[in-house]
Amino acid sequence: MKISARNVIKGKVKKVVTGAVNAEVTVEIPGGTEIISIITNSSVESLGLKAGSEVYTVIKASNVMIAVD
Amino acid sequence: MKISARNVIKGKVKKVVTGAVNAEVTVEIPGGTEIISIITNSSVESLGLKAGSEVYTVIKASNVMIAVD
Amino acid sequence: MKISARNVIKGKVKKVVTGAVNAEVTVEIPGGTEIISIITNSSVESLGLKAGSEVYTVIKASNVMIAVD
Amino acid sequence: MKISARNVIKGKVKKVVTGAVNAEVTVEIPGGTEIISIITNSSVESLGLKAGSEVYTVIKASNVMIAVD
Amino acid sequence: MKISARNVIKGKVKKVVTGAVNAEVTVEIPGGTEIISIITNSSVESLGLKAGSEVYTVIKASNVMIAVD
Amino acid sequence: MKISARNVIKGKVKKVVTGAVNAEVTVEIPGGTEIISIITNSSVESLGLKAGSEVYTVIKASNVMIAVD
Q1: Distance from CA of D23 to the nearest CA of A (A)
Q2: CB contact under 8 A, E43 and D1
Q3: Do F68 and E61 touch (CB under 8 A)?
Q4: Is CB count within 10 Å lower at the N or C end of chain E?
Q5: Interface membership of D29 toward C (CB under 8 Å)
Q6: Residue-wise burial string across B29-54, b where 16 or more C-beta atoms lie within 10 A, e elsewhere
Q7: Residue B62 sits at the chain C interface (C-beta within 8 Å)
Q8: How far apart are the first and last CA of chain E?
Q9: Backbone angles phi, psi at B6, to 5 degrees
Q10: What SS3 class is residue A49?
Q11: Domain presence at residue A61
Q12: Which domain holds residue A26?
């Protein structure tokens, strides 16, 4: 599957913390940057996510803001 | 300013393409990954963004999806 | 690719209208409902979208609001 | 009320699962497609949502991505 | 129509700037704060928005970030 | 830090309700309007948010919808 989201970044799951409905997934990408994602627990289960899983983070360009010091 | 968005990633602007209302900004982060952002032209102007600008990409965790092959 | 977005709905592109940076894509899903998407022109090109293309609309559950009369 | 969100799709609530802060609402639309929404528990209460409720799912066009196989 | 978005704020349109696909709408709310919205031109037309229009800004709680100095 | 989000509105935290992963923060802005935000518990902690905290609500223009009666 190829998606319209402009940012599809390969990485590896470092940590999954599940809550009542949502879970917090930490993904490490090349260069060592960590990207944090909140998805539903159902998605964690259906994708079989756990520490070490090879994944992509997918981010729509309109959801990326820019800041300067 | 410190923000609730969990992902604040330092990088350098590589390219700015402006449209009628919105602009597309490409930011290179450490490790060489490029992150693409769509923001308004007004924001490009008020932040003074151009190739070479040192910036942060700011992404709310709930806007990061995870995909697997 | 399998994605954490809970809503992945099969459909067929009915219309693509391109702007300066963004494009508006109309997708018809089973039952005749039309779903409208705004994505970048680059995505339209890289996915090769045109009327008749078989696609999926992908929507994160946290981006779906509910309204009642 | 008429809203700028381009996607306002009539349906019927099939299931509501509440968590600590957020709830997951499943809506069936004509043609049998199910759309899943994450909203706050407060919204579930204030809208009086339960299985069988007639509702609209409301989705901003910029939150709809397109994928192809 | 009553909507799950937690923030529905009454105001008055101050300015509408239309682009190729999207438009920028400035709304003044009580207390003098201005809220800026990017919606499609089609929505501007179908809602009949122009300076002086009485409107509501509608914002999902999960799209509101918090920052501190 | 200066951010591309077009809406940066000063206010004061009125209430923080924490869940398992996410928290609901109510901010009062000048004129008395309350803005509700859902952020992660981690953000509440790292920003030190509690009733009385002086904060900014930060909202991307593309996440503001417009409705009319």
Answers
A1: 7
A2: no
A3: no
A4: C
A5: yes
A6: beeebebbbbbbbbbbeebebeeebe
A7: yes
A8: 38
A9: -75, -20
A10: coil
A11: no
A12: 1-38
Mention every residue, 6+ apart, whose C-beta is less than 8 A from residue E15. Answer: E24, E25, E26, E51
Q: Which residues, listed in sequence order, are joined to residue B10 by a DSSP beta bridge?
A: B56
Distances (CA, A) of D54 to C14, D34, D49: 28, 14, 9
Q: What is the pTM of this model?
A: 0.90
Q: Kindly list the partner chains of chain A, i.e. chains with 3 or more CB atom pairs below 8 Å.
A: B, C, D, F
Note whether ipTM > 0.95 here: no
CA distances from residue A68 to A27, B46, F19 in whole angstroms, order as listed: 24, 10, 32
| Coil, strand or helix at C61 | helix
Per the domain annotation, does F69 fall within a domain?
no
Which of F18, F21, F38 faces D40 most closely, judged by CB atoms?
Answer: F38
Q: Sheet holding B2-3: strands in order across?
A: B2-3, E65-68, F54-59, F7-18, F22-28, F34-40
Q: How many domains does chain E have?
A: 1
Q: Is residue B5 within 8 Å of residue A65, measured between CB atoms?
A: yes
Task: Express each pLDDT in A9-68 by its tens digit.
Answer: 999 999 999 987 789 999 999 999 999 999 989 899 999 999 999 999 999 999 999 999
- Give the gap in angstroms from C-alpha C26 to the nearest C-alpha of chain D: 10
Mean pLDDT for chain F? 94
In the block, which residue shows the tokens 């604040």?
B8
Residue E42 lies in a domain: yes
Q: pLDDT for E5-26, tens place per residue? A: 999 999 999 999 998 778 999 9
Gap between the Cα atoms of A18 and A23, Å rounded? 4
Residue C64, domain member (yes or no) = no
Residue with tokens 């360009």: A61
Residue C33 sits at φ, ψ, to 5 deg, of: -65, 140
Quickly tell me which residue has 């409720």 as its tokens: D53
- In terms of Cα–Cα distance, which of C39, C63, C68 is closest to C55? C39
Task: Map residue D61 onto helix, strand or coil.
Answer: helix
CATH of the domain at B15: 2.40.50.100
